[in-house]
Amino acid sequence: MTNLKVHTHPGPADLEGDLASLRGDCARMVPHWAAPGPDVVRPVSPSRIHGVDVPASSARLLDAMSDYGD
Fold first, then answer.
1. 11-29, pLDDT tens digit by residue?
2. What is the pLDDT of residues 15-67, one digit of tens each?
3. Is 24 exposed, middle or buried (0-12, 13-18, 19+ CB in 10 A)?
4. Which DSSP letter does residue 36 get?
5. Which of 11, 30, 32, 49 has the most other CB atoms within 10 Å of its CB?
6. Is residue 25 within 8 Å of residue 11, measured between CB atoms?
7. ∠ at Cα 33 (27, 34), nearest 5°?
């Protein structure tokens, strides 16, 4: 036997709602969202910077570009 129950959302069925209904939907969702904390950016000591390794194929590509190679 097949279960033919249909689960529907209890909210409004109008998908073409106005801005007020969208704002209301967002306000109801606020408790479910978590804002990320602020990123802490600390300076890097120059002694920890050792350069950049670029694959030869990428270096040739950049060398062939007039913005970079000329």
1. 555 566 788 888 888 899 9
2. 667 888 888 888 999 888 888 888 888 888 888 888 778 788 888 887 777 76
3. middle
4. P
5. 11
6. yes
7. 135
